[in-house]
């Protein structure tokens, strides 16, 4: 079946550091890929998405590129802020069907 | 974006009892989803709740254990019945973002953290 594997957390960085959260997937075919974020006390919300190979999703300074060769969708940000502290979930789906999530990575940014 | 609230935010329950979780959305939506996140695990879809019809359950989940109500377009409940410690999880509801047919773009509620003793 389909699955998503994320970098184990928690991850702690200093403000303005470079961020990478790894995500790889296993699926038959070419799914759409997503990053969802959950800020403290809030519900998950969509951060960015990519629907085909080599697409780059971007939002709020975060980027992720759909790499078919490595079945990966790593999340990156060049300079993190304290406000980026949250739990990040990688996910996939086929067509407009249900989401398959990774286990989430908790990110803490220290001033 | 949709604003979703859930009640209760957390609860501690005794085994054998049942808990009903409420999900309220600030706009009318046709589809609502219920997920479970067990400790250290990913989110797993329990069922899809459409207003005016029976909920559709995913493999491994049954109506007797997780009955769902969907009385109108802004509200749903999920009941966790005859609870055991294995039911200790975070339960979340979600709705599609609103873009036509984009069911994989969803807004989630803040979750209900359930602990069963």
Q: What structural class do you assign from the helix and strand content of chain B?
A: mainly beta
Q: Over all CA atoms, what is the radius of gyration of chain B?
A: 13 Å
Coarse shape of chain A: globular
Total DSSP E strands of chain A: 12
Q: Rough shape of chain B?
A: globular
**Assembly type of the shown chains?**
heterodimer
Which spans of chain A of ≥5 residues are poorly predicted at pLDDT below 50?
A: none
Percent of residues in β-strands of chain A: over 45%
Largest interface: A-B, 24 and 25 residues
* Helical residue percent band of chain B: under 10%
Ends of chain A: how far apart?
41 Å
Give the tally of β-strands of chain B. Answer: 11
Instruction: Look at the structure and give the mean pLDDT of chain A.
Output: 93
Secondary structure class of chain A reads: mainly beta
Gyration radius from CA atoms of chain A, angstroms: 13 Å
The amount of helix of chain A comes to under 10%
Largest sheet of chain B: 7 strands, mixed
Outline the structure in words.
The complex is a heterodimer of chains A (111) and B (117). Chain A is mainly beta. Chain A has strands spanning 3-6, 11-14, 19-21, 23-26, 32-38, 45-50, 56-59, 62-65, 75-77, 86-93, 100-101, 105-110. In chain A, the strands form 3 sheets. In chain A, strands 2, 5, 6, 10, 11 and 12 form a 6-stranded mixed β-sheet that branches. Chain A has a 4-stranded antiparallel β-sheet with strand order 3-9-8-7, with no helix packed on it. In chain A, strands 1-4 form a two-stranded antiparallel sheet. In chain A, strand 5 (32-38) and strand 6 form a beta hairpin. The termini of chain A are far apart. Chain B is 0% helix and 50% strand. Chain B has strands at residues 4-7, 10-13, 19-25, 31-37, 43-50, 56-57, 68-72, 75-80, 89-96, 106-108, 112-116. In chain B, a hairpin with a 5-residue loop joins strand 4 (31-37) and strand 5. The mean pLDDT of chain B is 91. The chains are: A mainly beta (111), B mainly beta (117).
């Amino acid at each position: 079946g389909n699955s998503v594997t994320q970098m184990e957390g928690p991850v702690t960085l200093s403000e303005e550091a470079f961020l990478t959260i790894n995500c790889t997937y296993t699926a038959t075919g070419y799914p759409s890929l997503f990053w969802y974020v959950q800020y403290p006390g809030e519900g998950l919300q969509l951060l960015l998405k990519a629907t085909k190979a080599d697409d780059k999703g971007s939002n709020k300074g975060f980027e992720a590129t759909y790499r078919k060769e490595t079945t990966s969708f790593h999340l990156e940000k060049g300079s993190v802020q304290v406000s980026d502290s949250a739990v990040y979930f990688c996910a996939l789906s086929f067509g407009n069907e249900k989401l398959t999530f990774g286990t989430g990575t908790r990110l803490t940014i220290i001033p | 974006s949709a604003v979703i609230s859930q009640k209760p935010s957390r609860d501690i329950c005794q085994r054998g009892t049942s808990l009903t979780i409420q999900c309220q959305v600030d706009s009318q939506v046709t589809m609502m989803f219920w997920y479970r996140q067990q400790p250290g695990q990913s989110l797993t879809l329990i069922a899809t709740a459409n207003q005016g019809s029976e909920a559709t359950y995913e493999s491994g989940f049954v109506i007797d254990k997780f009955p769902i109500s969907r009385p109108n377009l802004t509200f749903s409940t999920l009941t966790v019945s005859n609870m055991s410690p294995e039911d200790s999880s975070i339960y979340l509801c979600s709705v599609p973002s609103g873009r036509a047919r984009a069911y994989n773009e969803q807004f989630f509620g803040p979750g209900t953290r359930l602990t069963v003793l």
